[in-house]
Amino acid sequence: MFVKPPSHTRPTLWKGKEKATEEPEFEDLNPTITYRTLFAQNLGVRDPLRVIALCDSDAFYAACEMIRLGIPDKPLVVLQWSSLIAVNYPARKFGITRMMNVQDALQLCPELVVVHVATYKEGEKEPGYWDNPDTKTHKVSLDMYRRESVKMLQLYKEGLPETTEVEKASIDEAFMDLTRPTRQILLERYPYLAQVPDDAPLGLDTPLPPPPQVSWDGLGTVVPIDPSITEELESPSTWHDVALSIAAECMEKVRQHIKAILGYTTSAGIARNKFLAKLCASYRKPMNQSILRNAAIPGYLKPMAFQKIRFLGGKLGKSLASEYDVSTVADLLRISLDEMQSKFGEESIWIYEVLRGIDHTEVKEKQTVNKSMLASKNLPQPVTQLSEGYHWIRVLAAELALRLNEARETTPNLWPKTLVLSARNVKALDSRRSKQAPWPFVKEVTVDVVAAAADKLWRELADPHAPMKIIGLGLAFTGVEGVEVGLKSIDTFFNTSLKPPSKRALEEDVLNTEPEVEAATERTTRNISKESSSFVCSRCGQKLSLPPSATRTEAERQAALALIQMEHDDFHVALELSKVSDNAPSRQTMIGVAPKDKPRKKRRKESPQGIAKFFTKG
Ligand code: CTP
Ligand code: CA
Ligand code: CA
Predict the structure, then answer these.
(1) Atom 5 (ligand 1): residue with closest C-alpha?
(2) Where do the structural domains in the chain lie, given as residue ranges?
(3) CA of 171 to the centre of ligand 2 (A)
(4) Is the CATH number of domain 367-485+502-513 3.30.1490.100?
(5) What is the pTM assigned to this prediction?
(6) Does the beta carbon of 576 sit less than 6 angstroms from any atom of ligand 1?
(7) How large is the average pLDDT for residues 574-597?
(8) Which of the residue ranges 77-86, 230-239, 327-336, 594-603 would you say has the lowest mean pLDDT?
């Protein structure tokens, strides 16, 4: 029988959207869910029952070290040279922050455990924890964290229902699209929804009967609808709330699973899209998950300082603040789309949408093939002669060999196509040069083999007769792909010995950037799609493209992209270290969504007035 809804839901049920009680600036907080919506298979990012989670590990590098050392509760920081890069929660209680130097931190907490990240040292195959590592001779290794990250991602996939889409978002976080599994569970739990009742007035287009009242106990922190009221009256649940609560159960389970197996505690945000999931993941940290119901979106976003939103933290945010004399999201909601687009370009539609809690970015697992792997180092003392380069090449070769061999543990037939060496010579006119060579099929990719090939590239690259002041070196494998064994027996490859690099090794023109601050950083293996001549930075969403070329080969394209990527990474490191937030969001202000992915109405290709100028250097 068709159940007649109670009066509070009736307008939603019979008249479509209950606009009168909805915030005018916020759309679709309580969309009508019909049987047709429920049964639809492919509503994608516009599914009104969409549920997305973002799960982030608490004080990740610090947690890795705590577990490695078996000291779960002690205040601990992770050091990279003299800067703190991770502070665990017990240490945060003493007021220690990432921006501090280690001496100040020790003053605040004399019993603080200080761990320097592992480093590569020339002559060692693997990174280690040495006494007094020195940036003049060592190179930071984040391999252990990467390994742990891979394990964690695997557990998300294993611990969540099969139909969940999982996308790695950074070294310690992942997005999950739980729309499909929650839909399935919802239909199992409320089997009466599986069929349109005979007396349903509009057939498939009849709105669903009112949902049960959700009990949020044990499911996490529910963001209040009105933040000014501490004890809220229970507001009626929607079917989207039911979906959120099912997602929250799944997340609670998988987070406990990760804690039990690997020991890491995590914090999650669960909401209707990626942007909101990421934003509310830090609502209560650590060891918590926060649920942002649609009804709570306006109350959550409106009082927020808008510059806390990703990309609105930097130059663009400042510009918005001064243009309109605004500081909160609510202030900015007054600005019409036309007005914003006339001042900030057509593409500012994404700002307009994000301020209203709208984000249609997909959760999509990134391709794991056709990657590049990069090891790079900004040199503390410039290399001024050919002979001084070999030391660093060996250090970079060690990292690259280890990375490839580790990746082969999960994908055994992984082979790189090309080895690329790049150097930044501030004394040369073409300050960034690179050489590359096809990577031969050698049986074992050892440090020696990589270093020997890289040494040859180094001799081609470094001109002993020209002025040399090399301040940065990068060594990369590009086109790393799983080789199909069936195509050609691997044994025939093994018989091929290491050949000298091809004479085709070539130089690439890449963007020149200013020398940046010394740092080794998280350099993740990124995906570069096969055909693309651009890549999108996972940190800031900026798209970087190669100049068009009709003659570029596939290997050249990949090498050139890897180099641009490295430059761009350096740019982030420089920003973070100098704490300049003018050109890109500062790390604290990052929240999930890359604006380039936003669907844009009236999109134009080039906009001189465009938003791009707020994300360019200078
Ligand atoms: N990280 C880094 N440099 C940065 C930002 C992050 O080295 N500029 C490293 C940190 O050491 C950290 C990991 O990347 O452990 C994940 O970063 P993030 O999630 O931002 O911070 P956490 O340390 O995990 O702390 P939180 O609990 O606040 O997430
Ligand atoms: Ca984290
Ligand atoms: Ca993180």
Answers:
(1) 587
(2) 367-485+502-513, 521-618
(3) 9
(4) yes
(5) 0.70
(6) yes
(7) 34
(8) 594-603
